[in-house]
Amino acid sequence: MTETAKLIIGEKTLEMPIVVGSEGERGIDISKLRQETGAITLDPGYGNTGSCQSAITYIDGDKGILRYRGIPIEEFDHRKHPNFIEVMWLLIFGRLPSEQELAEMRDALTGQAHLHEAMKHHFEGYPVNAPPMAIMSAMLNTLGCFHPEIIDPKDEVQFKAAIANLVSKIRTIAAFTYRRVRGLPYIYADPKRRYCANLLHMMFSMPHEEYHVDDEIEDALNLIFILHADHEQNCSTSTVRMVGSSQANLFASCAAGVCALWGPLHGGANVEVLEMLERIKAGGLSAEQYVEMAKQKDARLMGFGHRVYKNYDPRAKVLKGVCDRVLPKLNVKDPLIDIARRLEELALKDSYFIDRKLYPNVDFYSGIILRAMGIPTDMFTVMFAIGRLPGWIAHWWEQRQDKSSRIARPRQIYTGPVGKHYVPMSKR
Ligand code: SDX
Fold this sequence. Notes:
binds s-citryldethia Coenzyme A; three-stranded antiparallel β-sheet; 17 helices; mainly alpha
Protein backbone atom coordinates (compact mmCIF):
# COMPACT_ATOMS: atom_id res chain seq x y z
CA MET A 1 0.00 0.00 0.00
CA THR A 2 1.62 3.27 -1.12
CA GLU A 3 1.76 5.92 1.59
CA THR A 4 0.17 9.19 0.47
CA ALA A 5 0.15 12.86 1.48
CA LYS A 6 -3.05 14.93 1.38
CA LEU A 7 -3.08 18.57 0.34
CA ILE A 8 -6.14 20.70 0.95
CA ILE A 9 -6.21 23.84 -1.19
CA GLY A 10 -9.46 25.81 -1.39
CA GLU A 11 -12.24 23.32 -2.04
CA LYS A 12 -9.81 20.73 -3.40
CA THR A 13 -8.16 17.84 -1.57
CA LEU A 14 -5.37 16.25 -3.53
CA GLU A 15 -3.91 12.92 -2.47
CA MET A 16 -0.31 12.50 -3.65
CA PRO A 17 1.78 9.31 -3.60
CA ILE A 18 4.94 9.25 -1.48
CA VAL A 19 8.08 7.84 -3.12
CA VAL A 20 10.41 6.07 -0.65
CA GLY A 21 14.12 5.73 -1.47
CA SER A 22 16.41 2.81 -0.63
CA GLU A 23 17.64 4.65 2.49
CA GLY A 24 14.08 5.47 3.62
CA GLU A 25 13.98 9.07 2.34
CA ARG A 26 10.43 10.11 1.46
CA GLY A 27 9.44 12.36 -1.43
CA ILE A 28 5.93 13.63 -2.12
CA ASP A 29 5.23 13.13 -5.83
CA ILE A 30 3.60 16.45 -6.82
CA SER A 31 3.69 15.79 -10.58
CA LYS A 32 -0.13 16.14 -10.77
CA LEU A 33 -0.37 19.20 -8.48
CA ARG A 34 -0.75 22.02 -11.06
CA GLN A 35 -2.99 19.99 -13.33
CA GLU A 36 -5.31 19.10 -10.40
CA THR A 37 -5.22 22.35 -8.38
CA GLY A 38 -3.77 25.08 -10.62
CA ALA A 39 -1.24 25.76 -7.88
CA ILE A 40 2.51 25.14 -7.87
CA THR A 41 4.99 24.80 -5.00
CA LEU A 42 7.50 27.56 -4.25
CA ASP A 43 10.94 26.59 -2.89
CA PRO A 44 13.70 29.17 -3.64
CA GLY A 45 17.07 27.36 -3.71
CA TYR A 46 15.22 24.04 -3.94
CA GLY A 47 16.15 23.18 -0.33
CA ASN A 48 13.00 21.04 -0.01
CA THR A 49 12.61 19.92 -3.61
CA GLY A 50 13.86 16.71 -5.21
CA SER A 51 14.63 17.02 -8.94
CA CYS A 52 15.03 13.32 -9.65
CA GLN A 53 15.54 9.84 -8.28
CA SER A 54 19.18 8.74 -8.46
CA ALA A 55 21.18 5.63 -7.52
CA ILE A 56 24.61 7.27 -7.59
CA THR A 57 25.29 9.03 -4.27
CA TYR A 58 23.60 9.13 -0.89
CA ILE A 59 24.04 11.92 1.67
CA ASP A 60 22.60 12.08 5.16
CA GLY A 61 23.35 15.67 6.19
CA ASP A 62 22.22 15.19 9.79
CA LYS A 63 24.41 12.16 10.35
CA GLY A 64 27.29 13.35 8.16
CA ILE A 65 27.04 10.34 5.83
CA LEU A 66 28.32 10.27 2.22
CA ARG A 67 28.24 7.04 0.17
CA TYR A 68 29.14 6.43 -3.50
CA ARG A 69 26.93 3.64 -4.90
CA GLY A 70 26.39 2.52 -1.27
CA ILE A 71 30.09 2.56 -0.27
CA PRO A 72 30.97 4.99 2.59
CA ILE A 73 33.66 7.44 1.47
CA GLU A 74 35.65 6.68 4.63
CA GLU A 75 36.47 3.30 3.07
CA PHE A 76 38.45 5.09 0.37
CA ASP A 77 40.78 6.62 2.94
CA HIS A 78 43.39 3.99 3.74
CA ARG A 79 46.88 3.35 2.44
CA LYS A 80 45.67 0.78 -0.06
CA HIS A 81 42.68 2.86 -0.99
CA PRO A 82 41.43 2.65 -4.57
CA ASN A 83 42.62 5.11 -7.11
CA PHE A 84 40.52 7.88 -8.53
CA ILE A 85 39.87 6.01 -11.80
CA GLU A 86 38.39 3.03 -9.92
CA VAL A 87 36.02 5.38 -8.07
CA MET A 88 35.22 7.14 -11.35
CA TRP A 89 34.16 3.78 -12.81
CA LEU A 90 32.11 2.97 -9.67
CA LEU A 91 30.18 6.25 -9.90
CA ILE A 92 29.54 6.04 -13.64
CA PHE A 93 28.82 2.32 -14.08
CA GLY A 94 27.43 1.54 -10.61
CA ARG A 95 30.00 -1.13 -9.70
CA LEU A 96 33.75 -1.46 -9.14
CA PRO A 97 35.64 -2.35 -12.33
CA SER A 98 37.27 -5.71 -12.98
CA GLU A 99 41.04 -5.72 -13.36
CA GLN A 100 40.65 -5.90 -17.14
CA GLU A 101 38.08 -3.09 -17.28
CA LEU A 102 40.35 -0.88 -15.16
CA ALA A 103 43.36 -1.70 -17.34
CA GLU A 104 41.38 -0.91 -20.51
CA MET A 105 40.15 2.41 -19.07
CA ARG A 106 43.68 3.29 -17.95
CA ASP A 107 45.01 2.59 -21.47
CA ALA A 108 42.22 4.70 -22.95
CA LEU A 109 43.06 7.59 -20.58
CA THR A 110 46.75 7.32 -21.48
CA GLY A 111 45.90 7.35 -25.17
CA GLN A 112 43.64 10.39 -24.78
CA ALA A 113 45.94 12.64 -22.74
CA HIS A 114 46.97 14.84 -25.69
CA LEU A 115 44.93 17.71 -27.13
CA HIS A 116 44.45 18.30 -30.86
CA GLU A 117 47.44 20.50 -31.73
CA ALA A 118 45.09 23.17 -33.06
CA MET A 119 43.68 23.60 -29.54
CA LYS A 120 47.02 24.88 -28.27
CA HIS A 121 46.42 28.10 -30.17
CA HIS A 122 43.19 28.64 -28.24
CA PHE A 123 45.18 29.08 -25.05
CA GLU A 124 47.22 31.83 -26.74
CA GLY A 125 44.01 33.75 -27.41
CA TYR A 126 43.30 34.42 -23.74
CA PRO A 127 44.65 37.36 -21.74
CA VAL A 128 47.46 36.15 -19.47
CA ASN A 129 45.34 36.87 -16.40
CA ALA A 130 42.24 35.06 -17.71
CA PRO A 131 40.49 33.13 -14.90
CA PRO A 132 41.36 29.42 -15.31
CA MET A 133 37.71 28.39 -14.83
CA ALA A 134 36.71 30.55 -17.83
CA ILE A 135 39.30 28.74 -19.94
CA MET A 136 38.27 25.35 -18.55
CA SER A 137 34.57 25.73 -19.39
CA ALA A 138 35.36 27.02 -22.89
CA MET A 139 37.90 24.28 -23.56
CA LEU A 140 35.56 21.45 -22.51
CA ASN A 141 33.07 22.73 -25.05
CA THR A 142 35.88 23.14 -27.61
CA LEU A 143 36.93 19.52 -27.06
CA GLY A 144 33.56 18.50 -28.43
CA CYS A 145 34.31 20.34 -31.69
CA PHE A 146 37.36 18.12 -32.24
CA HIS A 147 35.56 14.90 -31.36
CA PRO A 148 32.13 15.08 -33.05
CA GLU A 149 31.93 11.27 -33.15
CA ILE A 150 31.67 11.05 -29.31
CA ILE A 151 30.29 14.46 -28.33
CA ASP A 152 26.85 13.00 -27.76
CA PRO A 153 27.47 9.31 -26.92
CA LYS A 154 24.62 7.05 -28.01
CA ASP A 155 26.01 3.67 -26.92
CA GLU A 156 28.43 2.33 -24.33
CA VAL A 157 31.39 2.20 -26.76
CA GLN A 158 30.99 5.88 -27.64
CA PHE A 159 30.30 6.67 -23.98
CA LYS A 160 33.52 5.01 -22.75
CA ALA A 161 35.46 6.90 -25.44
CA ALA A 162 33.86 10.17 -24.31
CA ILE A 163 34.68 9.40 -20.66
CA ALA A 164 38.35 8.75 -21.50
CA ASN A 165 38.46 11.85 -23.66
CA LEU A 166 36.99 14.20 -21.05
CA VAL A 167 38.60 12.71 -17.91
CA SER A 168 42.06 12.50 -19.47
CA LYS A 169 42.06 15.79 -21.34
CA ILE A 170 40.65 17.89 -18.47
CA ARG A 171 44.07 17.39 -16.83
CA THR A 172 45.91 18.57 -19.94
CA ILE A 173 43.65 21.60 -20.25
CA ALA A 174 44.28 22.43 -16.57
CA ALA A 175 48.05 21.98 -16.94
CA PHE A 176 48.29 23.97 -20.20
CA THR A 177 46.26 26.76 -18.56
CA TYR A 178 48.69 26.84 -15.65
CA ARG A 179 51.73 26.84 -18.00
CA ARG A 180 50.32 29.45 -20.42
CA VAL A 181 49.60 31.95 -17.64
CA ARG A 182 53.21 31.63 -16.46
CA GLY A 183 54.84 31.65 -19.88
CA LEU A 184 56.12 28.10 -19.39
CA PRO A 185 56.48 25.53 -22.21
CA TYR A 186 53.65 23.01 -22.47
CA ILE A 187 54.61 19.63 -21.02
CA TYR A 188 52.95 16.59 -22.56
CA ALA A 189 51.64 13.63 -20.54
CA ASP A 190 54.10 10.87 -19.65
CA PRO A 191 52.54 7.44 -20.45
CA LYS A 192 54.51 5.87 -17.60
CA ARG A 193 52.83 8.02 -14.93
CA ARG A 194 49.48 7.41 -13.20
CA TYR A 195 46.56 9.84 -13.45
CA CYS A 196 47.41 12.28 -10.62
CA ALA A 197 51.18 12.09 -11.07
CA ASN A 198 50.74 12.94 -14.75
CA LEU A 199 48.74 16.06 -13.90
CA LEU A 200 51.47 17.25 -11.53
CA HIS A 201 54.12 16.35 -14.16
CA MET A 202 52.32 18.41 -16.86
CA MET A 203 51.91 21.31 -14.42
CA PHE A 204 55.27 21.45 -12.66
CA SER A 205 58.03 19.57 -14.50
CA MET A 206 60.61 21.40 -16.63
CA PRO A 207 62.12 20.04 -19.89
CA HIS A 208 65.70 20.31 -18.58
CA GLU A 209 65.34 18.26 -15.42
CA GLU A 210 63.91 15.06 -14.00
CA TYR A 211 60.60 15.56 -12.18
CA HIS A 212 59.77 13.36 -9.22
CA VAL A 213 56.28 13.20 -7.71
CA ASP A 214 56.35 12.63 -3.95
CA ASP A 215 54.17 9.57 -3.12
CA GLU A 216 52.49 11.49 -0.28
CA ILE A 217 51.48 14.30 -2.62
CA GLU A 218 50.26 11.89 -5.33
CA ASP A 219 48.29 9.98 -2.70
CA ALA A 220 46.79 13.15 -1.21
CA LEU A 221 45.73 14.48 -4.64
CA ASN A 222 44.22 11.11 -5.51
CA LEU A 223 42.18 11.21 -2.29
CA ILE A 224 41.14 14.84 -2.87
CA PHE A 225 39.80 13.87 -6.32
CA ILE A 226 37.96 10.86 -4.85
CA LEU A 227 36.34 13.00 -2.15
CA HIS A 228 35.22 15.60 -4.71
CA ALA A 229 33.97 13.05 -7.27
CA ASP A 230 30.25 13.36 -6.56
CA HIS A 231 27.83 14.97 -4.16
CA GLU A 232 24.32 14.16 -5.45
CA GLN A 233 22.30 17.20 -6.59
CA ASN A 234 24.75 20.01 -5.71
CA CYS A 235 24.54 23.21 -7.74
CA SER A 236 26.97 22.19 -10.51
CA THR A 237 25.65 18.62 -10.88
CA SER A 238 22.08 19.91 -11.01
CA THR A 239 23.27 22.31 -13.71
CA VAL A 240 24.72 19.43 -15.72
CA ARG A 241 21.40 17.57 -15.40
CA MET A 242 19.41 20.70 -16.27
CA VAL A 243 21.47 21.33 -19.43
CA GLY A 244 21.52 17.62 -20.31
CA SER A 245 17.73 17.44 -19.92
CA SER A 246 17.39 19.49 -23.13
CA GLN A 247 19.36 16.70 -24.88
CA ALA A 248 22.44 18.93 -24.96
CA ASN A 249 25.57 16.86 -25.48
CA LEU A 250 27.86 15.59 -22.72
CA PHE A 251 30.68 18.06 -23.42
CA ALA A 252 28.39 21.11 -23.34
CA SER A 253 26.67 19.84 -20.17
CA CYS A 254 29.99 19.41 -18.36
CA ALA A 255 31.15 22.84 -19.55
CA ALA A 256 28.00 24.28 -17.92
CA GLY A 257 28.87 22.39 -14.73
CA VAL A 258 32.25 24.15 -14.68
CA CYS A 259 30.51 27.53 -14.80
CA ALA A 260 28.24 26.68 -11.87
CA LEU A 261 31.12 25.26 -9.83
CA TRP A 262 33.06 28.53 -10.31
CA GLY A 263 30.75 30.41 -7.91
CA PRO A 264 32.31 31.45 -4.55
CA LEU A 265 29.46 29.83 -2.63
CA HIS A 266 30.11 26.50 -4.36
CA GLY A 267 33.38 25.22 -5.78
CA GLY A 268 34.97 28.66 -5.56
CA ALA A 269 34.78 28.41 -1.77
CA ASN A 270 38.22 26.76 -1.46
CA VAL A 271 39.69 29.88 -3.08
CA GLU A 272 37.62 32.04 -0.74
CA VAL A 273 38.97 30.10 2.27
CA LEU A 274 42.58 30.91 1.34
CA GLU A 275 41.72 34.53 0.52
CA MET A 276 39.97 34.78 3.90
CA LEU A 277 43.07 33.40 5.68
CA GLU A 278 45.28 35.82 3.70
CA ARG A 279 43.03 38.73 4.73
CA ILE A 280 43.18 37.74 8.39
CA LYS A 281 46.98 37.50 8.26
CA ALA A 282 47.49 40.67 6.21
CA GLY A 283 45.06 42.59 8.41
CA GLY A 284 46.83 41.52 11.57
CA LEU A 285 43.54 40.09 12.80
CA SER A 286 43.36 37.31 15.35
CA ALA A 287 41.20 34.27 14.68
CA GLU A 288 39.08 35.42 17.63
CA GLN A 289 38.47 38.81 16.00
CA TYR A 290 37.50 37.24 12.68
CA VAL A 291 35.08 34.81 14.29
CA GLU A 292 33.42 37.79 15.99
CA MET A 293 33.16 39.54 12.62
CA ALA A 294 31.46 36.46 11.17
CA LYS A 295 29.01 36.38 14.06
CA GLN A 296 28.20 40.06 13.45
CA LYS A 297 27.71 39.13 9.78
CA ASP A 298 30.50 41.51 8.78
CA ALA A 299 32.26 38.53 7.25
CA ARG A 300 31.57 34.93 6.33
CA LEU A 301 33.66 32.05 7.73
CA MET A 302 34.37 30.54 4.31
CA GLY A 303 34.67 26.78 4.30
CA PHE A 304 32.06 26.54 7.03
CA GLY A 305 28.41 25.66 6.62
CA HIS A 306 26.60 23.56 4.10
CA ARG A 307 23.09 23.40 2.66
CA VAL A 308 22.88 19.68 3.38
CA TYR A 309 25.41 18.84 6.11
CA LYS A 310 24.15 19.99 9.46
CA ASN A 311 26.96 17.95 10.95
CA TYR A 312 30.66 17.64 10.15
CA ASP A 313 31.13 17.17 6.36
CA PRO A 314 32.60 13.63 6.29
CA ARG A 315 34.95 14.75 3.53
CA ALA A 316 36.33 17.49 5.78
CA LYS A 317 37.06 14.85 8.44
CA VAL A 318 39.07 12.77 5.95
CA LEU A 319 40.84 15.85 4.55
CA LYS A 320 41.71 16.99 8.07
CA GLY A 321 43.45 13.64 8.47
CA VAL A 322 45.31 14.21 5.19
CA CYS A 323 46.39 17.61 6.50
CA ASP A 324 47.68 16.06 9.73
CA ARG A 325 49.49 13.33 7.74
CA VAL A 326 50.89 15.16 4.73
CA LEU A 327 51.79 18.66 5.92
CA PRO A 328 54.38 17.53 8.49
CA LYS A 329 55.91 15.20 5.85
CA LEU A 330 56.14 18.13 3.43
CA ASN A 331 57.70 20.09 6.26
CA VAL A 332 55.23 22.86 5.49
CA LYS A 333 55.30 25.74 7.93
CA ASP A 334 52.37 27.88 6.86
CA PRO A 335 50.90 30.54 9.19
CA LEU A 336 47.64 30.31 7.23
CA ILE A 337 47.26 26.73 8.38
CA ASP A 338 47.71 27.79 12.00
CA ILE A 339 45.01 30.44 11.51
CA ALA A 340 42.71 27.82 9.93
CA ARG A 341 43.17 25.45 12.81
CA ARG A 342 42.44 28.21 15.35
CA LEU A 343 39.30 29.28 13.45
CA GLU A 344 38.04 25.72 13.47
CA GLU A 345 38.80 25.29 17.17
CA LEU A 346 36.91 28.49 18.04
CA ALA A 347 33.92 27.92 15.73
CA LEU A 348 33.35 24.33 16.84
CA LYS A 349 32.70 25.49 20.40
CA ASP A 350 30.86 28.74 19.66
CA SER A 351 27.09 28.74 20.02
CA TYR A 352 26.62 30.98 16.92
CA PHE A 353 28.00 28.19 14.74
CA ILE A 354 26.69 25.32 16.81
CA ASP A 355 23.12 26.70 16.84
CA ARG A 356 23.24 27.17 13.05
CA LYS A 357 24.89 23.77 12.56
CA LEU A 358 27.83 25.35 10.76
CA TYR A 359 30.71 22.88 10.55
CA PRO A 360 33.81 22.76 8.35
CA ASN A 361 32.99 21.57 4.83
CA VAL A 362 35.16 19.98 2.15
CA ASP A 363 36.51 23.35 1.04
CA PHE A 364 37.90 24.29 4.44
CA TYR A 365 40.79 21.82 4.20
CA SER A 366 41.13 21.17 0.47
CA GLY A 367 42.55 24.66 -0.15
CA ILE A 368 45.14 24.24 2.59
CA ILE A 369 46.34 20.89 1.22
CA LEU A 370 46.42 22.11 -2.40
CA ARG A 371 48.44 25.15 -1.26
CA ALA A 372 50.87 22.86 0.58
CA MET A 373 51.30 20.92 -2.68
CA GLY A 374 52.38 24.15 -4.40
CA ILE A 375 49.15 24.47 -6.39
CA PRO A 376 48.32 28.19 -6.74
CA THR A 377 45.01 29.52 -5.43
CA ASP A 378 43.69 30.37 -8.90
CA MET A 379 43.87 26.65 -9.78
CA PHE A 380 41.99 25.36 -6.70
CA THR A 381 38.53 25.31 -8.29
CA VAL A 382 40.02 23.76 -11.44
CA MET A 383 41.21 20.90 -9.19
CA PHE A 384 37.67 20.65 -7.80
CA ALA A 385 36.34 20.41 -11.39
CA ILE A 386 38.79 17.59 -12.23
CA GLY A 387 37.57 15.70 -9.17
CA ARG A 388 33.85 16.38 -9.84
CA LEU A 389 33.89 15.49 -13.55
CA PRO A 390 33.10 11.77 -12.97
CA GLY A 391 30.03 12.75 -10.93
CA TRP A 392 28.82 15.07 -13.68
CA ILE A 393 29.31 12.34 -16.30
CA ALA A 394 27.55 9.75 -14.09
CA HIS A 395 24.49 11.97 -13.57
CA TRP A 396 24.31 13.02 -17.23
CA TRP A 397 24.36 9.36 -18.30
CA GLU A 398 21.88 8.24 -15.60
CA GLN A 399 19.45 10.93 -16.78
CA ARG A 400 20.07 10.12 -20.47
CA GLN A 401 19.36 6.42 -19.78
CA ASP A 402 16.13 7.27 -17.96
CA LYS A 403 13.49 7.12 -20.71
CA SER A 404 10.98 8.88 -18.42
CA SER A 405 13.17 11.96 -17.95
CA ARG A 406 11.81 15.22 -19.41
CA ILE A 407 13.30 18.61 -20.17
CA ALA A 408 13.72 20.53 -16.91
CA ARG A 409 11.40 23.50 -16.94
CA PRO A 410 10.52 24.91 -13.46
CA ARG A 411 7.52 27.25 -13.09
CA GLN A 412 7.34 30.60 -11.22
CA ILE A 413 4.99 32.91 -9.40
CA TYR A 414 4.70 36.16 -11.40
CA THR A 415 4.90 39.32 -9.27
CA GLY A 416 5.25 41.93 -12.03
CA PRO A 417 2.85 44.68 -13.23
CA VAL A 418 -0.66 43.77 -14.43
CA GLY A 419 -2.83 45.30 -17.20
CA LYS A 420 -0.18 47.49 -18.81
CA HIS A 421 -0.33 48.70 -22.47
CA TYR A 422 2.25 49.79 -25.02
CA VAL A 423 2.77 53.58 -25.14
CA PRO A 424 4.07 54.95 -28.44
CA MET A 425 7.22 57.07 -28.13
CA SER A 426 5.28 60.23 -29.06
CA LYS A 427 3.19 59.79 -25.92
CA ARG A 428 5.92 58.87 -23.39
C1 SDX B 1 30.31 23.19 -1.61
O1 SDX B 1 25.82 21.45 -2.35
C2 SDX B 1 26.90 20.80 -2.26
O2 SDX B 1 26.90 19.60 -2.07
C3 SDX B 1 28.15 21.63 -2.42
C4 SDX B 1 29.45 20.93 -2.19
C5 SDX B 1 29.70 19.88 -3.23
O3 SDX B 1 30.47 18.95 -2.96
O4 SDX B 1 29.21 20.05 -4.36
O5 SDX B 1 29.46 20.30 -0.92
C6 SDX B 1 30.62 21.89 -2.26
O6 SDX B 1 29.85 24.08 -2.27
C7 SDX B 1 30.53 23.33 -0.12
C8 SDX B 1 30.04 24.71 0.45
C9 SDX B 1 31.12 25.72 0.12
N1 SDX B 1 30.70 27.09 0.44
C10 SDX B 1 31.22 27.74 1.47
O7 SDX B 1 32.01 27.26 2.28
C11 SDX B 1 30.78 29.20 1.55
C12 SDX B 1 30.46 29.54 3.01
N2 SDX B 1 29.25 28.85 3.37
C13 SDX B 1 28.01 29.54 3.19
O8 SDX B 1 27.96 30.61 2.34
C14 SDX B 1 26.75 28.72 3.38
O9 SDX B 1 26.93 27.95 4.49
C15 SDX B 1 26.30 27.83 2.21
C16 SDX B 1 26.18 28.62 0.96
C17 SDX B 1 27.28 26.74 2.02
C18 SDX B 1 24.96 27.24 2.61
O10 SDX B 1 24.08 28.29 2.65
P1 SDX B 1 22.56 28.08 3.12
O11 SDX B 1 22.23 26.64 3.35
O12 SDX B 1 21.71 28.84 2.16
O13 SDX B 1 22.59 28.72 4.57
P2 SDX B 1 22.18 30.19 4.84
O14 SDX B 1 22.96 31.09 3.94
O15 SDX B 1 20.69 30.24 4.81
O16 SDX B 1 22.71 30.42 6.34
C19 SDX B 1 21.93 30.04 7.49
C20 SDX B 1 22.50 30.91 8.64
C21 SDX B 1 22.49 32.40 8.32
O17 SDX B 1 22.45 33.08 9.56
P3 SDX B 1 21.00 33.58 10.14
O18 SDX B 1 20.36 34.39 9.01
O19 SDX B 1 20.25 32.31 10.47
O20 SDX B 1 21.35 34.42 11.38
O21 SDX B 1 23.89 30.57 8.84
C22 SDX B 1 24.69 31.72 8.57
C23 SDX B 1 23.84 32.65 7.73
O22 SDX B 1 24.28 33.99 7.88
N3 SDX B 1 25.86 31.20 7.82
C24 SDX B 1 27.12 31.57 8.07
C25 SDX B 1 27.90 30.80 7.18
N4 SDX B 1 27.11 30.01 6.43
C26 SDX B 1 25.84 30.28 6.84
N5 SDX B 1 27.64 32.47 8.94
C27 SDX B 1 29.00 32.61 8.90
N6 SDX B 1 29.82 31.88 8.09
C28 SDX B 1 29.31 30.99 7.22
N7 SDX B 1 30.12 30.30 6.41
